[in-house]
């Protein structure tokens, strides 16, 4: 037999080949990716240099406006407009280029927006130069100092933004250079390492294949030794096909020596012969069909056969396994096992019959224990050295114990009662059980059982059984409760009737009972009083009750009454009632039909809601007044938006013109008065704008969206850059959450609080503002705050400014309330009121705390 052909496979070599190809592809992919990364890094550096060039063009562009030659050119007659338009087109081209080049940098894009505004401002200031007409006898003249200062301020702001952009691009350039250097170094190194790694894998694969080949040879020799020494018949068959390629028989390719030992056939004589000729006595048992099934279906087949060899019956256990181009059959002599099975089967059958009888008895007893509601236990005595009972072992307990003690029978079985039920040693039950066993008697007793503070009562019967005791227990808690309830029933009824009477009088409720079968009625004492009578002041009936209905409500009352009687269903109605004294009251009625013992009666409950009706009328009147007030407020907003601000704008315009034309001729006192007028106008304008902002925060309109407070803080910082820089303030902030809110209101809230901290600074300290955040449970908030959700965002604005006394913590949130004179600190006294209104509009709260000379803290709570 060619053993190697049967037992070796090429799958392993194919797998190794595939693995090698995959490794080569992986190596090539990694090298390609490194090259592409290096190329991308180079492109990024080039891109940064292009941005540098564009910013340089911008620097040259705005620096022209700082030169005297350029300004004189604009002041000259002739082509100044053409030069100015050309200058603007150059600026637009530069900004368009920067906008395209920084499209991948949101921060630079954010800086371009104010930069565009500054350039427009610069053009507008230069446009004034273009519009100036020199006098007839002058070719040019000096620009005014005020206009120069405006242009210089604009140029200075452009310079600041340009420096920020250059600093950003410088950082990006350094980062991208480092990235390029890293990829430039790693690309060839990675390729070299991967190449060595691939070579290592190929060498390792070769060594592995060589080792496997050696193991196969060793395994082949080892397997031959096993086949020669095994007690099993091992044969290998290959199919024989006819002209139609159909299997008609099997050829014996290999046979071991056990064929001789069990069947008397020499292995060398039968190899090369067909199965049907070698084992003709097996064909009748269907062995050939089993081999065909194994070969065709490629599945393992197990079968047992009884064979008669030399008049001796033998049993063989065989299994056929598809192997290579044939079938490997292994056969074990199982004659001794089959004989032992016959003997065992007879013994097992006898044992099963006995077990069935025992199971029937146990099942019958188990059904009894399951069907009863009693807890049944059996304890075995545990005696000490002196022969006295010191404990019990739990031998049996039925499932009814679980609802009582929570124990499961399997878990407590064979355990000691001192471990499971130690309370029986304290309650005297242990002495009862010992008495039952020692004196051979039956004992009944009642004991309480306490569970989670509740008292339960049980009645137990203990009976001796051998050296133990059987206890049957049933719960009698309900019996004791019912006995106790019967004693207190009359007392409770008396108390309840008294309480019901008092409750009806306090709640202004009365009841009416109508028995439909007998057409009789009963009325509560309080209903008599509600109608202006003393109890039992008239004979109650449905017709009599109708006499109290207001004439205008009679039709509605009759309609509803007839419908209720017809459908036996009632609804809630309100009628006007005229009492005995002629007073009109409003009664709200509701009822229910009840059928008991084939008798139907209706219970109607009436409540005096006169005060409620009158309160609703007052509320409606108040709502109308509120609508009128809101309309007046809207009218005020329109006036404040247009009519009030228009005179202020004209005052500012004329003051500006007087200062430009007559400013040098005014006395110092007049200049001082003009400055005070200007400040007063600005303060009045700020006051009107703040009042408008305060009135426009409408809590009824909540167009909430997802707001990232980190972005809000960045926007506010950008808007207040000049003030923060002038104050040399330091702002520290935790990572803030995302909330649902109105974004412009959140920006106004942050702006007001940070501006407030920058305004009230201590001149002896470096201003510091710390914005802290944490999520807190509603229970950790002040008790006087009404909570609407379980968790809140807590945002604290803490500064080290002049602070304030904590007694003014609520006053500062009121409109026009100030703790300082306006000559000390500017402001309108509305900013914190706006903060409070914004917080409340978001279903939140704002609190203040401070210490004079130490600092202030403003705490905002927003729903999480």
Average pLDDT, all residues: 77
Query: Percent of residues in helical segments?
Result: 55-70%
Q: Tally the structural domains.
A: 6
Query: If you compute it from the alpha carbons, what radius of gyration comes out, rounded to the nearest whole angstrom?
Result: 52 Å
Sequence of strands across the biggest β-sheet: 2-1-5-4-3
Sheet with the most strands, sense and barrel status: 5 strands, antiparallel
- Uncertain residue segments: 1-8, 135-141, 820-827
Domain PAS: 219-274
Transmembrane segments: 13-32, 185-207
Catalytic activity: ATP + protein L-histidine = ADP + protein N-phospho-L-histidine
Pfam families: HATPase_c (PF02518), HisKA (PF00512), PAS_3 (PF08447), PAS_9 (PF13426)
Provide a compact summary of the structure.
One of its GO terms (molecular function) is phosphorelay sensor kinase activity. With 864 residues, the chain is α+β, with helices and mostly antiparallel strands.
Question: What attributes characterize this protein structure?
Answer:
864 residues, alpha+beta, Beta-Lactamase, 6 domains, 5-stranded antiparallel sheet, disordered N terminus
Written description of the protein model:
The chain is an alpha+beta fold and 864 residues long. It has 6 domains: 195 residues; 104 residues, PAS domain (Beta-Lactamase), CATH 3.30.450; 35 residues; 103 residues, Beta-Lactamase (2-Layer Sandwich), CATH 3.30.450; 101 residues, PAS domain (Beta-Lactamase); 163 residues, Histidine kinase-like ATPase, C-terminal domain (Heat Shock Protein 90). It has 28 helices and 22 strands. The strands form 5 sheets. It has a 5-stranded antiparallel beta sheet with strand order 2-1-5-4-3, with helices on both faces. β14 and β15 form a beta hairpin. α4 runs antiparallel to α5. The radius of gyration is 52 Å and the shape is flat. The N terminus is likely disordered. Pfam families: HATPase_c (PF02518), HisKA (PF00512), PAS_3 (PF08447), PAS_9 (PF13426). Keywords: Kinase, Membrane, Phosphoprotein, Transferase, Transmembrane, Transmembrane helix. This is histidine kinase.
